[in-house]
Amino acid sequence: MHGTIKSRFLACLIVLALFIIVSNLAGHNEHLLEDQKPQIKHINIKEGISVSESCNLFSGRWVYDDVSYPLYKEAQCSFMLNDFTNFACEKYGRKDVKYQNWRWQPHDCDLPRFDGTKLLEKISGKRLVFVGDSLGRNQWASMLCLIESSLPQLSSQMSFIRNDNLFIFHATEYNATIEYYWSPFLVESNCDDPFNHSIKLERIIRISDIEKHARHWTNADILIFDAHMWWRHPTMMLLWGSFGSSDAIYKRVEMKFRRFEMALNTWSDWLQININRTKTKLFFTSLMPNHFNVESSGGIQKNCYTETEPVLKEGYWGNETDLEMMHVAESVIRKLETRGVKVEYLNITNLSDYRKDGHPSIYKKLFHHLSEKQIANPERYADCVHWCLPGVPDVWNEILYSYIINPL
Question: Global pTM?
Answer without folding.
Answer: 0.85
